Amino acid sequence: MEDRPAILRSLLEERTVDIVTVGRRSGVTRVTEIWTTVVGGEAYVCGTPNAGKPGVERQPRDWLANLMATPEFTVRLKNAVHVDLPARAEPVGDPGERLRVLTAPITEYYRKAVSLEAALAHSPMVRVQFTGDAAWLGEAVRQERPDG
Fold first, then answer.
1. Which domains does the chain have, with CATH numbers?
2. Angle at 91 between CA 87 and CA 94, to 5 degrees
3. How far is CA 83 from CA 6, 60, 119, in A?
4. pTM recorded for the entire structure
């Protein structure tokens, strides 16, 4: 794996990544550009419930459905560092954890897009557990950003 400090810095500072999932019905590889968010020493992938559509309170997400069917996926860093990081998605349903993530300063975007109540109830959210050659990132993220 490439330069670990550069990978960690890219994950923490250049939030835009691609996630590579397996289509739940097609079995075909799908690539989605999305943000990563680190809160409390954990990495997350989140989204707004309305997908940018005015008046829509909840819009299902293909990437989330794909991850629920096949939790193994790839986080593709694509800015300063170009590397594919194997990972596993864990859905976040715990109300306390969702509140902690969605009220953190770094997630202000979601609170501006919809009400906090709508975000808490409907925002797609998974915790990212890095696996394989990228497993070291879990501890590195916790050490670098233990509280947010």
1. 4-143 (2.30.110.10)
2. 135
3. 10, 28, 31
4. 0.89
